[in-house]
Specification:
It is a single chain. The protein is α/β, with parallel strands linked by helices. Helices cover 55% and strands 6% of the residues. It has helices at 18-30, 38-41, 48-58, 69-72, 78-92, 134-149, 156-162, 171-182, 189-207, 226-254, 258-276, 283-287, 291-306, 310-318, 350-360, 366-374, 384-393, 404-432, 448-451, 459-470, 475-478, 486-505, and strands at residues 8-12, 35-36, 60-67, 100-104, 114-116, 119-120, 127-128, 321-322, 332-333. It has a five-stranded parallel β-sheet with strand order 2-1-3-4-7, sandwiched between helices. The longest helix is centred in the middle third of the chain and has 29 residues, at 226-254. The chain starts with 7 loop residues before the first strand and ends with a helix.
Length: 508
């Protein structure tokens, strides 16, 4: 908000679009850009026609003409008079300079205003502040305005904070769009780092909310409500971490260096610290604190396995190391620190099975799925947590895989590679420390154990065949997995295949 004479952005709109203009003003405020809006800038007793004309002619650095269905429905409006004045002003200005900018609040047509010199408003590039590209377009618009004002480019983290008023379901796509916009631009490294750090901090603050994520059941809560509480909390953990996962999916595919991945590596280690920190409460609820970390690890694994980005698989999931427990001296890879069983080790199969049924079909809610499980109307899932995550992560990968079969095959390959690299790590640890021979093998067994029980083309067999064929040129080896040693990879595959077969045989 500013006076008419001060340098500002003038916002021209119809009153029915107040909500959309409020969002636009929040963007401008976040970037410290002065703006003029009739509702805020006109005072009591002002001769509004004169004040508006002066605001457009004297202080406007950028004129934003906001078009929408509401605007198109009006035959007469003050906005039409404002645009007429803006067109007169535009004609007086030097050509090629940004001043009049159309903004669309929907995908409808823009009015055909004649700008003179054989130009119309249709010849000017517009900003679309609606739909999945809202954030990307908003960043471009704010950056352009900053350039016109001669100030510094706006901070994407600040822009991201300004769009938090959007609904929670829209937030993941916004994080993805921001990440896509900046991940490959070396000049935006600091800004992107700030963006991911800010999102990670937001997640951690919410995770430590005892009201949102209690570690004790509510007083008087019946024991038979425990499964519903577990399922509800797991769902809420996922909703909180989802935007960060959508961002990680982009980074895992497109980053080319460990430096580019550093913000997400820091996020992974922070989530692990949260999961293992000593807290008091009911064990079954404490274990659920692993859900955010598990979701991120599986996201990174599927994204990298799907594009054969084994270099980023290693950087994110193997080279990223943590201490297994608070105060421990030994370190392990983040891939070893969590698995499908960790969050629900004390929960049994009812809650995760209900999660899987509710995620896969609109036929079930958590409540109805739990009721059907109690009456044997449906069966407990063989690998419920893997099934649940596979369903929940699926929309995130719509831009990476052409169909559901491709996605599910990539999910299988991801969980098997997690099993192979963690089996290799455990074997190397026991080899160095024979006194740890009691350590069990990997726990990374998921959907692939039942999906490929009767198939000879399981991901385990496929990886083994690829290793035999390619030898030292095998992709994961060239990326540094298994210490780049063919023998180690072969040993891990043999050991994992034996355990994989045992798990599969145990189903039926």
């Amino acid at each position: 908000m500013t006076s008419a004479a001060a340098k500002h952005v003038f916002i021209s709109y119809v009153r029915q679009d107040n909500a959309e203009v409020d969002k636009l003003c929040d963007l401008l405020k976040a970037a410290n850009i002065a703006y003029w809006r009739d509702r805020e800038s006109l005072g009591p007793g002002d001769a509004w026609k004169r004040v508006i004309r002066e605001a457009i002619q004297d202080g406007t650095a950028v004129f934003l003409a906001c078009f929408s269905a509401n605007q198109r429905a009006k035959e007469k409006s003050v906005m039409n008079e404002e645009i007429r004045i803006a067109v007169e002003e535009y004609r007086l200005r030097r050509p090629g300079k940004t001043w009049l900018v159309p903004v669309r609040f929907d995908d409808g047509d823009i009015d055909d205003w004649d700008l003179g010199a054989n130009l119309s408003i249709h010849d000017i590039n517009y900003a679309d502040l609606f739909g999945d590209r809202y954030t990307t377009e908003a960043v471009k618009l704010i950056t352009m305005i900053q350039d016109v004002f001669g100030g510094p480019t706006s901070d994407p983290a600040t822009v991201q904070a300004s769009v938090e008023q959007l609904s929670a379901p829209e937030r993941p796509a916004k994080m993805r769009e921001l990440t896509k916009s900046f991940i490959l631009d070396p000049t935006k490294r600091i800004e992107l780092d700030d963006l991911i750090r800010s999102e990670t901090q937001r997640v951690l603050i919410e995770l430590r909310s005892a009201e949102r994520f209690p570690l004790q059941p509510a007083a008087g809560q019946a024991d038979n409500d425990a499964d519903l509480l577990i399922a509800d909390l797991a769902t809420d953990y996922w909703r909180l971490i989802e935007p960060l996962c959508w961002s990680l999916q982009v980074a895992a595919r497109y980053a080319d260096t460990v430096e580019q991945l550093t913000p997400w590596i820091r996020a992974l280690t922070a989530l692990h610290t949260y999961a293992v920190e000593p807290v008091g409460g009911r064990t079954v609820l404490i274990k659920l604190r692993y859900v955010p970390l598990l979701a991120c690890v599986v996201t990174a694994a599927v994204a990298t396995a799907g594009d054969d980005r084994w270099d980023n698989f290693r950087r994110l999931l193997v080279d990223c190391t943590v201490k297994p427990r608070h105060g421990d001296t030994r370190v392990e890879s983040i891939a070893e620190a969590v698995d499908f069983y960790a969050p629900f080790a004390e929960a049994g199969k009812a809650a995760p099975s209900a999660l899987a049924y509710a995620a896969e079909s609109e036929k079930y809610t958590l409540e109805s799925a739990l009721a059907a499980l109690r009456t044997n109307g449906i069966q407990h899932r063989l690998q419920p947590v893997a099934d649940w995550l596979c369903a929940m992560l699926c929309p995130m990968f719509a831009d990476q895989f052409t169909d559901n079969d491709s996605y599910e095959n990539a999910f299988d390959r991801a969980e098997v590679m997690l099993g192979l690299v963690t089996q290799d790590s455990i074997s190397m640890l026991v080899e160095r420390n024979p006194e740890l021979s009691w350590l069990r093998g990997t726990h990374w067994f998921g959907r692939s154990t039942w999906r490929h029980k009767h198939s000879n083309s399981s991901p385990v067999n496929e990886f083994a065949q690829q290793l035999d064929t390619a030898g030292a040129d095998y992709g994961p080896l060239k990326a540094g997995l298994f210490g780049s040693q063919q023998e180690r990879a072969g040993a891990a595959m043999t050991s994992y295949a034996e355990q994989f077969a045992k798990v599969s045989r145990g189903y039926w």
